[in-house]
Amino acid sequence: MSAQEKVDVVPARRDDLDAIARLESQAFDAPWKREFFESELSAKGRYATVARNADGIVVGYLFAMYFDDEMHINKIAVDGARRRQGIALALMAACFEFAVVNNIRTISLEVRLSNTIAQGFYEKLKFSSLYIRPRYYPDGESAVVMVYRPADRPVLSYEF
Fold first, then answer.
1. 106-112, strands of its sheet edge to edge
2. How many other β-carbons are positioned within 10 Å of the β-carbon of residue 21?
3. Pairing state of beta strands 58-67 and 106-112?
């Protein structure tokens, strides 16, 4: 693993949208449009954060929605040149802290069936694979639905 890059995880702002859209295009074959991220910033029940490096550059983001005691992570991405440096871990740690403070009992997400690296990352964070959602992605690939329950399995340290 590469050296850890120090980042600050902070709420996403409108002036981050170009950087978020750029990272999104790099990370996903069927990226969300910039306008969709923009609408997420002002929508009720949304959690939107970015990771900034020491130079203030957006190097990752996490967008989720929550209602009552449930949260769903819609998007998480890290600059391809900066992966495996602890940035996704920092984004998830901030998300977990938000979940605990806001009495979120379940966090869910989907991962491509072929993306075993991401599945392994989430398993290390105590997510469990719940089931396969067939033909979830635009290209027809299935998704693994993964769930984490903060109240049942608190993670006190995000180092592994």
1. 8-11, 46-52, 58-67, 70-78, 106-112, 143-148, 128-133
2. 18
3. unpaired
Token pair belonging to 139? 């290209």
Please name the residues in contact with 104: beta carbons below 8 A apart, sequence gap of 6 or more.
66, 69, 70, 71, 98, 150
pTM summary value: 0.90
Q: What is the pLDDT of residues 89-139, one digit of tens each?
A: 999 999 999 998 999 999 999 999 999 999 999 999 999 999 999 999 999
Name residue, tokens 């939107």.
48
Phi-psi region of 56 (alpha: psi -120 to 50; beta: other; left: phi over 0): left
End-to-end CA distance of the chain: 12
Measure the CA–CA gap between 142 and 132, rounded to whole angstroms.
Answer: 7
